[in-house]
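Researcher: I'd like a structural prediction for the single chain below. Treat it as a standalone chain; there are no partners to consider.
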Amino acid sequence: MTKELPKVRLLTCGGTIVSSGESASQMTGYRLKDFSVDALLAAVPGLSAVARLDVKEVARIDSMSMTSAVWKDLGRAIEEADADPEITGIVITHGTDTMEETAWFTHLTMKTQKPVVFTGAMRPSTALSADGPLNLYNAVRIAVDPEARGRGVLVALNDVIIGARAAMKVNPTNAAAFAGLAEGPLGLVSGDAIVWFGRPEKPFGAAAPFKLETYAHPKRLPRVDILYSHADDDGMLVRASVEAGAEAIVHAGTGNGSIHAETEKALQEAAQRGVFIIRASRVPGGCVTPGLAEWQERGYIPSGTLSPQKARILAMLALVTFGWNPEKMKEAFERY
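Model: Treating it as a single chain, here is the predicted structure.
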């Protein structure tokens, strides 16, 4: 008697993987049209021999327009899949523009040990050598691999498996669009084999205090703005952010999270008004360290290896979970 195939819940959020162009040579400027998930599945030979797929649409949007409301909907869908003992793993198709943000939010808030694998595409479904079908095939293979359990949320494209904390889109058009930068990949898809290198070092999921139900009631998560430093920076955007109601500001500074002299006064004023200041860097990679003594005296928090967009999400979750608590905010960036 043939053993029944594992069951995988496929949660779809839209993105390039289900987008269409006007010709096989169109690689940019495509749109979400009428290409369906069923058509995508039909374009993946052999998928039915890997797993039984149970499909649920969470959203159908370009990920450049992602919202925290969709993150919450996705989180509930993951919880539902986790509660089903038949389901072995969860695959999420998502646009690549903000995949790293959705994956990071999910990594911090989900509590499942089941594999959760994000995938997508850099070329539309109509393109010559579209990458979506193979990415989906590999994501399902990863989701049913027992070795994938307990590794948190994974981002898998172009044969590379990256942890959600490290994953970053580093190329706007190339199929090799994602990298792990400071932390590197957790594994690779190599032909018929899935090769694992490691597990996340930082606590996540059940080991973290961030719970999805905590964020189900507010209309939105707290306002946290990212401000990108540059020559001629003058602090105007810092003041505008504070007036708009920001509870924290992620300052994507130059170099090691450095701050323009003309912006420093505005950030100091914001901190005195109770706005958390997170020092990140516009440099893609490396680790932001504490830096100048006066930055520590003013309560500025270095982002470590988190990108500005990842630092923003952690700050939002910490604000909802702990409220205005400088020690807990600092601890969150040191621990997670």
